[in-house]
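Continuing the series of single-chain predictions for the mutant panel. This is the parent chain; the variants come on the following pages.
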Amino acid sequence: MLYQRLLRISIFIVVTTSLASARDLALVSNKSNAVAAITVTDLVKVCKAQNNRWPNGKPITFIMRSPAAPEMKLVLEKVYGMPENDVNGLIVTSNHGRPNHPAILVVSSDEELVNKVASLPGAIGVVDVYSINSSVAVIKIAGKLPLEPGYLLHGN
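Parent structure:
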């Protein structure tokens, strides 16, 4: 009897933990950006600071949560294709010599991310879909919006 109860509790914890970490993310943009869609290749270039200007000449700032945050695991795998330590090194290298307009900005919460993207022209960021509000625009990735089948940043 005790064994069955422990087994049920263990299964519940495993299922709950995996569901909690499998968030759906969205790419959001400052509303003044003219970009409504981006290819996966271009997104990777922006996230790795290989492309630092929009077609209209505005500087790009990519805003993200810490690479160590559990919700960023999906971004590290599907966008960066590198481990957390390498992404941390990339952030430092990309921002070297750019104190007034960093290429990659790390924030501590989804709320802070949305506020930064909304207030910084040229900014885009990756955020939990349930943190999106009217102050930012959602960008399509490879022609798909969040929660559509095949969306790159779908959590499952």
